[in-house]
Amino acid sequence: MNDAANLHNDSLVIDSHNDSAVALIRRGNVGLGGERQPERQQRAGAVAYLRQYQSGDVSMQLDIPMMRAGGIDAAFFAVDTTRAWGNHLLYTLDAHGYLKREIAEHRDDILIALTTRDIDTAKRDGKLAAVLAVENSIALERSLYALDALYELGVRTLTITHSARNEAADGCEVEGGGGLTGFGRQVVARMNELGMLVDVSHLNDQSFWDTLDASTKPVIASHSCCRSLCDNPRNLTDEQLKALGAAAGVVAITYVPFFVDTSAPSIDRLIDHILHAIDMAGESAVGLGSDFDGGGDLLEDASHVPRITDGLLRRGVAEETVKAVLGGNTYRLLQATID
Ligand SMILES: [Zn+2]
User: Fold this and answer.
1) Deepest in the core among 71, 143, 164, 196, taking most CB within 10 A?
2) Cα 280 to ligand 1 centroid, rounded to whole Å
3) By the 8 A CB rule, do 139 and 92 touch?
4) What is the mean pLDDT of residues 74-97?
């Protein structure tokens, strides 16, 4: 094994965003362990009803075998509830219910992490860890008690918005949008109390600043890149990167090609984003958030993540910094928020 492979295997690797839970269902209830049996397609639920199966396509970017091949120790499994058409909480429960059943069926391989101790336990026992996430607080249907209930279900992080407006805040594609609403402030406050990690990816600029200001705990941008390298409202400005770092948060660089580069996205360009984020936010404020199965197509699948470690070493990044980016920083952020 070369140096990069050794370093990758020695590191705790955490991926702070995938959309794989819904993708498993939409591929026809395929299995987290790589099962592709047609009889699994008998199950149905809200996601299957509202979003339909994608006929014939059973390819995934992330499942247990691919996590193992890519040396990913822990992954945030998000349910993006944006397209649930008025059934947001039900859709969230359906997708996380499916995921939890899959995790239970594969309990020898993967566990649900409620604290960082669970990530430690998984690593010690040769298992993977899943952190349950919800993307878009529209899932709450305007109920703070639903937030409590999702916490009880095991959800440990919530993205405040998708790119559109919801009851809590405005997303990055709302023209002339405002900031965090009164309800949004209540959501952030309750997340801080419960021990849930606040996710600012997808917010518009005003809502980003409002959320950073409102949260008493450090926050994550679970899947975003740098706007000064690729001008897209989903990416963070240099000022935002600096503020996130100063507030002990993490920006997890994502593998969505059009957030990396509009003309020639590449692994090398992805490394540029990581290095720029380190320059702006600091080496303890940068992580990885793939968006596998949700647009993170710059890497073919989760088994290719070691290419990032290789790319960072080739650019002369110190081994300790590489380990921090691969997972150390996000682990520390989880310690500060969910433990
Ligand atoms: Zn997203």
Assistant:
1) 196
2) 22
3) yes
4) 96
